[in-house]
Amino acid sequence: MVGMRRRSLLAVVALVVVAPLALGGCGKGREKPAQAAGPSGAPAAATPGSGVAGQNGGSAALALSVTPATGKKGVPVSAEIGLKVAGGKVTAVSLKDDKGKDLPGELREDGSAWVPGKTLKNSRKYVATVTAVGDAGQSKTETTTFTTMGRPGRETGTGLYLFDDRTYGVAMPVVVEFNPGIKKKDRAAVQKRMFVKSEPAQPGTWSWTSSGTQAYYRAPRFWQSGTKLAVRIAVGGLPTGGGRYGDRDRAATAKIGRSFVMKVDNRTKKMTVIEDGKTVRTLPVSLGKKSTPSSSGTMVVMDKQASTVFDTIAELGPERGYRTEIEYAQRLTWSGQFIHAAAWSVGAQGHRNVSHGCVNVSPSNARWLFGKTLIGDPITVRGTEDELRYGNGWTPWDVSWEEFVKGSALPVPAELAAQAGQD
C-alpha cells in the first residue's frame, strides 16, 4: 500500500525547504521528506581537481590580474574574485564591503578564484585586494572595486535534503533540487558552485537527472561509518539560465552512522538485514502483486512516519481507491513505495505478493525495523516484474559508478572515474 498527496514544488518555510512532486504507485498522498538549509559557510571542497593556487615553475616575471574588473557594476552576488597569476603564487586575498567589513573566503583548489564564504549583498560596493609573491621573492598587489546588481526579478528555487547535525545512513546521497530545472548548457556553472567535503576524504562527483531538477552527489562506494559531511550549495544570486538567479545559498553539516543494509529477494519473499557486515535478522515480506509490482533496484530510506494515512480515493476514485491508517512507514520512492506494517498480509508474507507495490512486513517486524533505520539506509529489491526508474526517489546507487559519472556537467578526474564502484 502507498499513500500520497500533491503539493506545490519547493515551498520554503524558514530554514526548511519542502519540495514535493506528484506521486504514483500504490496511491497518492504524502509529501516529500523535508529539505534543510543551514547557514552558508566557506566552500567545503570543489569537484576534485589538481594543482596548487598559482604555482609556476621557473622564474618568469611576476604577473597578476584580478576580476571583476575595477569599476564594474551589476555584478552577481555570487561573484568570486577571479585570479590569474604567472611567475609566482597568490599569498593573500581580502574582500571588504562598503562599510569596511572583511568577508571570509577560500581559494579554489586549482587557484583560479577566491570564493567568498557567503553570498554578497545586492546593490553594494566591494573592494578586493590580492597579493602575489613571485618566484624570485618580489611581490605584487592588485585592487579592484565593483558593485553588485540589484535583486533579480526571477529566481530558481532550490532545496537541500540534508539537515545540520543529523546522522544518516551510509547510502545517503547529497540531494539538491532546482525549480525550474537547470538546462544542460547551464549545469556546469551551477555544479561548480556546489561543494562537498567528506572527512575522512572520500572523493565523489555530482550527477544530474535528465530533467535538471535534481543533482546527486556520491562517492564510488557507500560512505564509511563515522564520516563527517560538510555541504555548501553556493548558488545564491548565481545566474542559472533563462534570466533566473539562484534564490539563496544552502549549507549543512552531518554525520554518517553505522552500516545498515536491507536486501529483499522476491524469489524467497524475504528481507535480509545486515548491520556492520553481519546478518542480524531475516524478515518475511510480501511485495507488490503483478498488477502493481514493486520496483527492483537499489533505493534508500527517504522519510519515516510512525503513523500516517494512505489515501488514494482522490486519485483512483471511490470504487478503487482506499483510505487506510498505516504504521511504521518508510518511504523509498516518489511514486509511493514504502516499507510498512501490514497486519492484513501477515499470512501472505514469505509466500506470495499481495501489496500495491510496497514492502509489507508484520507489525512487530515493522516496529523493530523502524527503530533501527536511518534516513539514507539502502534497500535493494531484486526479482520483481518492474525496474526502478532513475529519479524515482534517491536513486544514484541504482546505476553503476561508470554510469553515474556520465551525469556530471564537469569533467571527472580520470583516476576518480576509474575507481571500482559499489557492488
* Poorly predicted runs: 1-25, 37-58
Strand order of the largest sheet: 15-16-13-11-19-18
Proportion of residues in extended strands: 35-45%
Helix/strand class: mainly beta
Q: How many angstroms separate the termini?
A: 30 Å
Alpha carbon gyration radius: 24 Å
**Number of DSSP-assigned strands:** 30
Helix proportion range: under 10%
Summed up, the helix count is: 5
Describe the sheet with the most strands: 6 strands, mixed
Envelope shape: elongated
The average pLDDT score comes to: 88
What does this structure look like?
The longest helix is centred in the C-terminal third of the chain and has 10 residues, at 363-372. The strands form 7 sheets. A 6-stranded mixed sheet has the order 15-16-13-11-19-18. It has a 6-stranded mixed sheet with strand order 23-22-21-29-24-30, with no helix packed on it. Strands 4-5-8-7 form a 4-stranded antiparallel sheet, with no helix packed on it. The protein is built from 5 helices and 30 strands. The chain has 423 residues and is mainly beta. It has helices spanning 184-191, 313-320, 363-372, 401-404, 414-417, and strands spanning 11-13, 16-18, 35-36, 63-67, 81-86, 88-97, 105-107, 113-116, 125-134, 139-147, 155-160, 166-168, 174-179, 194-199, 205-208, 214-218, 228-233, 239-241, 244-246, 250-256, 260-265, 270-275, 278-284, 295-300, 303-311, 323-331, 338-341, 359-361, 378-382, 386-387.
